[in-house]
């Protein structure tokens, strides 16, 4: 069994920690980028464009890289996706643009679209840190709630159109999940903040920190004070396991663990268990487990209630975790968290199977895993309370999130929404597209 000393900081020397949390996928060299660009067929009806949620002209920017025009390539990307730098690093290209690449069918090796995109954007950020130009001022003021990818993509596009934008952000830093929710080795070297500064260089955008909807702000007040409002506050709630022992020491939400790790400058000061169990099957579970292992945890196990094909984490992400020494056990649901002296000591699980309706149900067989740290990664939920007044919601919802139309308009006139707070795919690139589409709709509305 374990004791409290099994959750400790400094399990690895500083040099090893620095290497473990450095950039996991180093950029292409100039020569490598040209060679990789030459593999593109520059398809006329390119399926990779259709597979990109933001509709980047992928053959167009790759052709420019091949001819040495990195500035032109980066501008082509930014026209569609102002978060092109982070998306190049964190986007699951293996199930989006690269999965659609015709090279995949021929050689099972697509053009490395994400790496090429990173090459172009990184070059522009280094050589032209303020590449954006605003249209003449319109005199219109727009409010944006949330400084994540959806909110900042919306704010940037509105600023480009000449509007003045105020972004209200609850946390002390902008960036949303890029800053607080992505594995440190995916967005290394403070890239999230450098990209935000790059985006804000357009001008016309003010960020007001420490402002939460439903506390310091209300939707009616925002609607009265601005020409339009965009909501991009993401998912603030975390699902509970609903089993005994969740309040034991050493049990915490995986999103909080990742956020703390992202904000801790000295990784040697961050405590981690010797035996860590992560419950869940998404990217958050993968990121939490892999980072726990890289902090020095000796034994890390992800446990998921269904099979590998049902995990929302991509196959590449699952392989990455296992390459880092993380075990993944399937077909098991947590039954109880075991503890002693107020600290978690283990988890009991019920093995599961599929019933006739396709649901995962207990099979009756049990097993236990020792653990001195348990990270819960069973999903985040939208908190609707900030949208309520006098006991009723001000906006219509769908599947537990804000309902929007194709232009990201909500049921309240003048109020738009996008990103994880609306129904859809929870990806950075999808959030950017929501913000972009909403900004164009807002611009048309406020300019008549």
Helix-strand blueprint:
Blueprint: E1 7-8, H1 14-20, H2 30-37, H3 47-51, H4 58-66, H5 70-80, H6 84-90, H7 97-100, H8 102-107, H9 113-127, E2 141-145, H10 149-160, E3 164-169, H11 177-180, H12 191-200, E4 205-209, H13 219-225, E5 228-231, E6 237-238, E7 251-253, H14 254-263, E8 272-273, E9 275-279, H15 283-295, E10 299-303, H16 315-323, E11 327-329, E12 332-340, E13 343-354, E14 360-370, E15 373-376, E16 380-381, E17 388-389, E18 392-393, E19 397-398, E20 401-402, E21 415-417, H17 428-446
Parallel strand pairs: 2-3, 2-5, 3-4, 5-21, 7-15, 9-10, 9-15, 10-11
Antiparallel strand pairs: 1-8, 6-16, 12-13, 13-14, 17-18, 19-20
Helix pairs in contact: 2-4, 4-5, 4-9, 5-9, 6-9, 10-17, 14-15, 15-16
Task: Tell me about this structure.
The protein contains 17 helices and 21 strands. It is an alpha/beta fold and 448 residues long. The protein folds into 3 domains: 38-127, Alpha-helical ferredoxin (Fumarate Reductase Iron-sulfur Protein, Chain B, domain 2, Orthogonal Bundle); 141-236 and 382-446, FAD/NAD(P)-binding domain (3-Layer(bba) Sandwich); 238-379, 3-Layer(bba) Sandwich (FAD/NAD(P)-binding domain), CATH 3.50.50.60. It has a 5-stranded parallel sheet, with helices on both faces. The chain has a 5-stranded parallel sheet with strand order 7-15-9-10-11. Helix 4 crosses helix 9, helix 5 (70-80) packs across helix 9 and helix 10 (149-160) runs parallel beside helix 17. The chain is globular. The model has no long low-confidence stretch (mean pLDDT 95).
């Amino acid at each position: 069994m374990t004791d409290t000393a099994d959750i400790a900081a400094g399990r690895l020397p500083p040099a090893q920690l620095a290497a473990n949390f450095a950039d996991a996928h180093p950029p292409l060299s100039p020569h490598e980028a040209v060679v990789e660009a030459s593999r593109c067929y520059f398809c006329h009806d390119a399926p990779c464009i259709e597979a990109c949620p933001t509709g980047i002209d992928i053959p167009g920017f790759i052709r420019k890289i091949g001819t040495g025009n990195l500035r032109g390539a980066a501008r082509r990307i930014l026209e569609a996706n102002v978060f092109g730098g982070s998306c190049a690093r964190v986007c699951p290209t293996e199930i989006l643009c690269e999965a659609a690449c015709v090279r995949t069918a021929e050689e099972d090796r697509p053009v490395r679209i994400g790496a090429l995109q990173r090459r172009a954007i990184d070059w522009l950020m280094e050589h032209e840190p303020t590449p954006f130009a605003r249209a003449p001022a319109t005199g219109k003021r727009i409010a944006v709630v949330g400084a994540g990818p959806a909110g900042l993509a919306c704010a940037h596009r509105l600023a480009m159109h000449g509007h003045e934008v105020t972004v209200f952000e609850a946390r002390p830093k902008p960036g949303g999940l890029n800053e607080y929710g992505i594995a440190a080795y995916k967005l290394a070297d403070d890239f999230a903040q450098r990209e935000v500064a790059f985006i804000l260089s357009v001008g016309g955008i003010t960020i007001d920190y420490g402002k939460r909807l439903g506390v310091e702000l209300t939707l009616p007040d925002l609607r009265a004070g601005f020409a339009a409002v965009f909501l991009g506050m993401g998912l603030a709630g975390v699902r509970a396991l609903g089993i005994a022992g969740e309040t034991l020491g050493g049990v915490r939400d995986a999103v909080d663990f990742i956020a703390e790790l992202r904000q801790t400058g000295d990784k040697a000061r961050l405590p981690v268990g010797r035996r860590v169990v992560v419950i869940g099957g998404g990217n958050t579970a993968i990121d939490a487990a892999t980072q726990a292992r890289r902090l020095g945890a000796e034994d890390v196990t992800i446990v998921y209630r269904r099979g590998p094909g049902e995990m929302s984490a991509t196959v590449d992400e699952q392989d990455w975790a296992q390459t880092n020494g993380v075990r993944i056990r399937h077909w098991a649901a947590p039954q109880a968290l075991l503890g002693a002296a107020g600290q978690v000591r283990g988890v009991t699980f019920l093995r599961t199977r599929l019933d006739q309706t396709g649901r995962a149900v207990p099979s009756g067989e049990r097993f236990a895993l020792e653990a001195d740290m348990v990270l819960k990664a069973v999903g985040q939920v939208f908190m609707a309370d900030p949208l309520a007044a006098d006991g009723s919601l001000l906006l219509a919802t769908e599947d537990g999130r804000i309902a929007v139309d194709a232009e990201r308009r909500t049921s309240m006139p003048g109020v738009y929404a996008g990103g994880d707070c609306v129904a859809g795919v929870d990806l950075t690139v999808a959030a950017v597209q929501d913000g972009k589409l909403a900004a164009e709709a807002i611009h048309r509305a406020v300019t008549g």
